[in-house]
Write a structure and sequence with these properties.
heterodimer, A: 6-stranded mixed beta sheet, 5-stranded antiparallel beta sheet, 17% strand, B: 105 residues, alpha+beta, 5 strands
């Protein structure tokens, strides 16, 4: 993984010193809140419902055991002993004090971490497939390009005051595990007929108030032109994106209002001017960065593990976990482990300091010292030998991280909601907990099969409800929390926006309503092999509306 | 704007140093408990509270302040709006941690 060089170390240290000075001046009254707010946001420090909230960047969701241990330490020393992993592969702390934040940033800088550009109208964390570098059918590791984009976008002087935030995601497989089509820019590594790899470029996806699926603007962009092309897109956005209305300021609105063809023409025209100039990526530079992402030295192993097979045969709990939480690795004899942060009845995506330390230890010992954060609020140990899966599972179980529910209905995405967030209209975590408990039985979850449930506490959609197979949106109705259900959303390579099914439900009713939706699916599916999403796309909303409301 | 007779307004803020939710008291100090907030039932009373709040702002005690509707419910002053009620009592989850544990265990 990427290691800071002298320049990077100097930069974050200076940044911490600068922020420390800004905090001191604020506390002394030399800066007003209005003057200070944009400065603290540039270091990822929000003021939320009960306290400040610090969002720490985890570039493309990749971190080492040392970094995870530091995150645990910060939770313990400066917070209330836990952190929350987010839908952009970052981590949030809910209770840091302003006074402590410079010290927190300093401790992060020591392990090559920071909170820069995790807020504000700038380019945010560039996210990636959480199986990058390990996935069985990967064309190329997308994180090389995420790192290049990170360096290009950090403190980019021209793009420090964009009309609004900007989010980029990159994948290296046909399967989209990074929701690229609901990002401002989505990049997919592909191979052309000559066997060269390049990028398919999507622009203008997003969720929030006006969910939109990104439009393809280029089938194949040669890799050396990545930065010049991104520069062209950002320049067009920076110039023409709306600044008159905060709710119409994302690039998706620009695409929608201008027209895909017209906007693509504008991008291509800008690109003509700047391609083959300073932004062209020299091969040696790409290779230098790619070297940071070289696969770890993995011992040759047989394709199957007798030890694993025996353990599965003798322990059904272990077998359940392997079947659900372990994905195929490109190297024979290895697997990709997803660690569920969705314990039954727990707050989705939260991890205690103790849990973080335990996962760090397991990563160091069994996963070549590497971890990932997924945008679905789970963690990944990307390089685990099949022979070691039993020990890993036991280690996870010891800290209540062994839930075998990846991709099942209890693997819920939920935003922090009204329990924490100043923007929210309704609570999301208790809804997630209630639904999780209703479907706790693992055999029932297996019967239901893959089902992505996503909950947002307000229309900003940080819980990605628009792209849930079942989405739940919390609203405030006459000072009471109320929940709308959407169906048929998806964030994979066949992205779709969910459709509101009808009238909403109270907090007391929503779990029953979700159960009704699930039971309807079980009744109407052609066979157990037809997933919820497939069934919905086949039959539409009518059967679900009838069961929920007694009428279509 | 008409208000129900039993609804008044309190002043709420966040403490500058740690972001903690605060309510202005009658003496111009700050409390973390909404039950101890000063409630203004008329514009004159509200103006007095606003002056005290601005004094707190000038002393760098708070980040900003806002008005919050409050009412007496079950004998205690409480926030009217759902969001403010949660804000006043801490998250409804993880009740063993944070303000909710310290103040309302």
């Amino acid at each position: 993984m990427y290691r800071y060089d002298e320049f990077d170390h100097d930069f974050v240290r200076q940044r911490v010193a600068q922020f420390r000075d800004q905090v001191e001046r604020r506390l002394a009254g030399e800066l007003t809140e209005d003057e200070f707010k944009p400065l603290r946001l540039q270091n990822g420090l929000y003021l939320q419902l009960h306290a400040y909230m610090l969002r720490v960047a985890i570039p493309y969701g990749t971190l080492s055991s040392k970094q995870m241990r530091r995150l645990a330490h910060i939770a313990r020393k400066y917070d209330k002993g836990y952190g929350h992993f987010t839908t952009r592969q970052n981590i949030q702390y809910n209770w840091p004090s302003l006074v402590d934040t410079p010290a927190i940033l300093e401790e992060l800088a020591e392990v090559e971490m920071h909170a820069i550009q995790t807020s504000g109208n700038c380019i945010r964390n560039t996210t990636a497939d959480h199986f990058a570098g390990a996935a069985a059918n990967e064309i190329e590791d997308p994180r090389v390009w995420c790192e290049i984009i990170r360096q290009w976008s950090t403190l980019h002087p021209e793009f420090a005051f964009l009309p609004r935030k900007f989010k980029i995601a990159v994948i290296g497989t046909k399967e989209d595990r990074a929701a690229i089509q609901v990002h401002d820019i989505g990049l997919a590594l592909v191979r052309n007929e000559e066997g060269e790899t390049g990028f398919t470029v999507y622009v203008g996806g997003g969720q929030g108030r006006t969910p939109m699926i990104a439009k393809k603007v280029r089938d194949f962009l040669p890799k050396q032109h990545l930065l010049s092309y991104l520069e062209a897109i950002l320049r067009v956005y920076n110039q023409f994106g709306r600044r008159d209305n905060k709710y119409k300021a994302r690039i998706k609105i620009l695409v929608h209002e201008t027209g895909t063809k017209e906007l693509t023409d504008a991008i291509e025209a800008e690109w003509e001017e700047i391609k083959d100039t300073v932004f062209t990526l020299p091969n040696e530079e790409v290779k230098r960065i790619a070297a940071y992402f070289a696969p770890p030295q993995m011992q040759s192993r047989p394709i199957t593990s007798a030890k694993l097979d025996a353990a599965k045969a003798s322990d059904t709990d272990f077998a359940d976990w392997v079947d659900r939480n372990v994905a195929p690795h490109k190297r024979a004899g290895y697997g990709i482990v997803t660690v569920s942060l969705k314990g039954i009845g727990e707050a989705p995506g939260d991890a205690s300091a103790e849990q973080m330390d335990a996962v760090a230890d397991l990563a160091e010992r069994y996963s070549h010292d590497e971890l990932r954060v997924t945008h679905e609020q789970n963690l990944v140990l990307p390089h685990v030998a099949l022979d070691d899966l039993l020990e890993v599972w036991q280690g996870l179980r010891a800290v209540d991280l062994g839930t075998p529910n990846i991709g099942f209905v209890t693997d819920i995405i939920a935003c922090p909601g009204l329990d924490y967030c100043a923007l929210a209209n309704a609570r999301s975590i208790p809804v997630a907990q209630s639904i999780s408990q209703r479907f706790a039985d693992i055999d029932r979850q297996k019967e239901i099969g893959p089902l992505k449930l996503k909950i947002s506490g307000c229309i900003n959609a940080c819980g990605h409800h628009h792209v849930g197979h079942i989405g739940i949106l919390g609203v405030d109705r006459k000072n009471e929390e109320f929940y709308q259900i959407t169906l048929g959303g998806s964030a994979d390579e066949n992205t779709s926006i969910g459709k509101i099914i009808g009238q909403g439900f109270s907090g007391d009713e929503i779990t029953d309503a979700v159960e009704t939706v699930v039971d309807t699916y079980l009744d109407i599916r052609k066979s157990p092999d037809e997933t919820f999403l497939q069934a919905y796309r086949r039959v539409g909303e009518t059967p679900f509306k009838e069961r929920l409301y007694g009428r279509a | 704007m008409t208000k129900q007779q039993n609804i008044a307004e309190a002043i709420t803020a966040n403490r500058l140093t740690d972001g903690a939710v605060l309510y202005l008291t009658a003496t111009g100090g700050w409390t973390e408990k909404v039950e101890e907030a000063a409630a203004a039932a008329d514009p004159t009373a509200r103006l007095e509270l606003e002056e005290k709040a601005n004094a707190g702002l000038a002393r760098q005690e708070i980040t900003h302040w806002e008005l919050a509707e409050v009412e007496i419910r079950d004998g205690a002053l409480t926030a009217v709006k759902n969001k403010e009620a949660i804000r006043s009592r801490g998250p409804t989850v993880r009740r063993d941690l944070g303000k909710q544990a310290e103040l309302y265990a």
